Amino acid sequence: MMERRGYAAVGLHMPKRAENVGSALRAADCYGAAMVAISGRRYVRSAADTPKAWKHLPVLHDLQNLFDVVPYDAETVAVDLVEGAVPLPTFRHPERAFYVFGPEDGTLGKSVLARCSRRVMVPTRHCMNLAATVNVILYDRLSKSVRGQV
Length: 150
Hints:
The structure is a single chain. The chain has helices spanning 18-30, 110-113, 130-146, and strands at 7-13, 35-39, 59-63, 75-79, 86-87, 96-101, 118-121. By secondary structure, the protein is α/β, with parallel strands linked by helices. It has a single domain (7-146), classed as Alpha/beta knot (3-Layer(aba) Sandwich). It has a 7-stranded parallel beta sheet, with helices on one face. The two termini are 14 Å apart.
């Protein structure tokens, strides 16, 4: 297996449901994310995070602004069904990425999108659940890095 380079950090912008936050933390732990940052406080700790990922990777929560914690030299990637988003099958992940995922009951919005240097979307018939989207994006990154595409 090839040596993986860089890292993936996850930003959850104003998530609503605790189950999705817990499952997103679990996905981040499973796929080796470097950090999870969460803005807002609309959720509570969830039983969905069965491995207690917050014990194994940095989780920054209750942030006013996700962009205050973007790691040095990381590319910010908006993950949303928005105009100009690259379909995931053709998307090339940056070596150092900070993926920003929107809330379950909305989109990232213009102010957040303006702060992201890239946009990616998962081509589906309907919008996906937040935790499912985190899983798909991080799996795609891992899969492409094994093939030398990250």
